[in-house]
Design a protein that fits this description.
The protein is mostly helical and about 80 residues long. It is built from five helices and no strands.
């Protein structure tokens, strides 16, 4: 039963984790590995990738500068052409 699981988590010092927390973490980790958002949405049962991207993914500090680096690369290629 759920109350037994909650009691065990409290007595062992483990954090209380809900299913949606695991779902969000899984979607975020999969996305950070570069999996296509459509594939992540399908895995989660979403009909539209916007739901997945808005609710279940986060931008990590490591990937935060990706857009900036991509634009710099595009502009550098245009200058060389």
């Amino acid at each position: 039963p759920l109350h037994v699981q909650t009691t065990r988590a409290l007595t062992t010092g483990l954090p209380r984790i809900q299913f949606r927390d695991l779902r969000s973490s899984a979607a975020t980790l999969i996305s950070l590995e570069g999996v296509n958002p459509k594939e992540v949405a399908d895995l989660l049962g979403h009909s539209d990738t916007s739901i997945t991207l808005e609710r279940y993914t986060r931008i990590s500090s490591a990937s935060h500068g990706g857009a900036t680096r991509a634009m710099e690369a595009i502009l550098a290629d245009d200058e060389q052409a």
